[in-house]
Amino acid sequence: MHGHHHRFSSENPFAGMRGGFRGPRGRGPGGRGRGPDAPPSVERAEVAGWFAGRLPDDWFTGPVELTVDRDEITVVGTLAEPEAGEGDAAAARAGRIARFREETREQRMAVADAAQARYGRSVAWGAACGDVREVFTNLSVPVMTRLRQPDRLVLDTLVDAGVARSRSEALAWAVRLVAQHTDEWLGELRAAMASVEEVRARGPQVD
After folding, report:
1. What confidence score (pLDDT) does residue 118 get?
2. Which intervals of the chain are annotated as region Disordered (predicted)?
3. Cα–Cα distance, 134 to 96 (Å, whole number)
4. What does each C-alpha distance from 90 to 62, 128, 131, 170 come to in angstroms?
5. How far apart are CA 66 and CA 200, in angstroms?
6. Which of 12, 50, 166, 196 is the most buried (most CB within 10 A)?
7. Number of structural domains, the chain?
8. Cβ atoms 89, 130 nearer than 8 A
């Protein structure tokens, strides 16, 4: 498949899909467009502040890296580097991450429960040490899709070609491919959405 990647890079992959891909517009009142069961929207700075206050000072060397979506909050902290001595540095870092994972399990579960109650999202934990990085438990969320036949045929072609084992794996592969080739474009979209959120946050509160 490697020979085909370059085709994608200079084009917007959604160019021919005006009807299929909806941007931030048209999501109904409030621009949220989520069902009644959807978790409440959260302010990233508020989440970061809460974790900064809740996490023990001696766990990480600095502020944690937070990734928040509507299902999950991923918290990755940086651990102090071990003195490897004559040993292999990468193995020492991996060992330090494993020790952190084991020694903090109960406390992490308590923090995760409190975060779940507060934000309506599960928490995934990870740790980085030098150039070794590991996320322990990422949630696998079933994504509800209403795909029409032409879209299903694309997924089935990927399955038939042996690129993916199932439609859901093919969909995950397609999402990764889009993300890989349109990082800049996705970054611009996120920036635009963030500024819309800021403006909305400064406006009158209607809740």
Report:
1. 94
2. 1-42
3. 11
4. 21, 12, 8, 33
5. 22
6. 50
7. 2
8. yes
